[in-house]
Amino acid sequence: MSTISHPPTGISPGARHWSRVLVTETWASLAIFAMWIAVAIAAVWGPDFVSTSGSGASSTTIPSGVIIAMFATIGTWFVAKYGLAHRSEQD
Asked: What is the DSSP string of the chain?
């Protein structure tokens, strides 16, 4: 008796699409997480921005975490917009 071997079953196109989406979303989430970890580390151990008037009578101190958080907010917005966006089936 002879038998016919069947070709291996492949992954359906729908499953491939979901795996790509999950990988994209994972990397986008990790990028956002890394940005905010950097903000937390800079806020705790980073230096302060100090501005002193010409005569030295008054000074202003701004924690560096505030400025870095502003840039992380902008970066989070861009990563979320393009990394977590829903794509059409054609992509």
From this structure: ----PPPPP---HHHHHHHHHHHHHHHHHHHHHHHHHHHHHHHHHSPEEEEE-TTSS-EEEEEHHHHHHHHHHHHHHHHHHHHSPPPPTT-
| pLDDT tens track for 47-87 | 998 988 888 789 999 999 999 999 999 999 999 999 888 76
Instruction: Give the separation between CA 45 and CA 68, rounded to whole angstroms.
Output: 13
User: Residue 18: what are its φ and ψ, rounded to 5°?
Assistant: -65, -35
pTM (predicted TM-score): 0.67
